[in-house]
Amino acid sequence: MTTESSFTDIGRGDWVDRRVPAAIRPYCRLARLDRPIGSWLLLLPCWWGLALCAPPGGWPSFQLLVLFALGAMVMRGAGCTVNDIVDRDFDRRVTRTAGRPIASGAISVPRAFLFLALQLALGFVILLQLGSLAMWLGCASLLLIAAYPFMKRFTYWPQAFLGLTFNWGALLAPAAALGRIPAAAYALYGAGIAWTLVYDTIYAHQDKEDDLLIGVRSTALKFGAASRRWMAFFAFLMLALLALTLVVAGLGLWAWVSLVLVALHLAWQIGAVDMESPADCLAKFRANRWLGLILFAGILLARRFG
Q: What's the predicted TM-score (pTM) here?
């Protein structure tokens, strides 16, 4: 099992246990409401895209910022529900995930499907507020969400497929804001995919020993001892695509300052992470929220103040 054999991603004594009625707690944990980092990582490319499309001297739409925040929380929960239904047998065999609601039996598979239907219905209501192009793009993302849990069975690159899925908002948000997708958004989408290959490779190192035993694949297993070099490559690719984004979008000083800070953050997490410590891998993974917020702030300020 994992190096830290008692390590689990199921919280105990947190706000879910203290404040949520017992009957609802497993659903909060299934949707990962107790662990919002995934929602942040899904939301931030959306906010990057909205900031990118803000009018010169202005701010992005507050309504769209809120709608995408709600949508990220709902759809991240839906993605986790799909993932946990598909992976329930694997999850039972991994220390970190054995306590998840479906794997542990706290939620039956039929009830999980009903919960998924509710989440998708809420997501669709939000999607209807975003315009026709965004609606079609949002529906297309369901194919990525449905396919992702199966990727670890067939390829050592599920992290790349997660990148395609989690950064879809970099295209979806401009479609909602402008009714079209500007060229800079495609470079931003590519940068997000490279970013995901960094942070999710770190995340995958939590489970590498268990993954070997149960026969699932990841970039952590693919790269092995060379993981740090590969992550450095993807970090460089992210920075290059972000620089392209800023040039194509004509963004000024604040955006470039944020790019330098993003580079420093990437260097810190790749250089400092202890890939033999699941707890440290999780801490570095979670720190990517700040990286995403730094970039968001830089693009936002560059649009507002030039």
A: 0.93
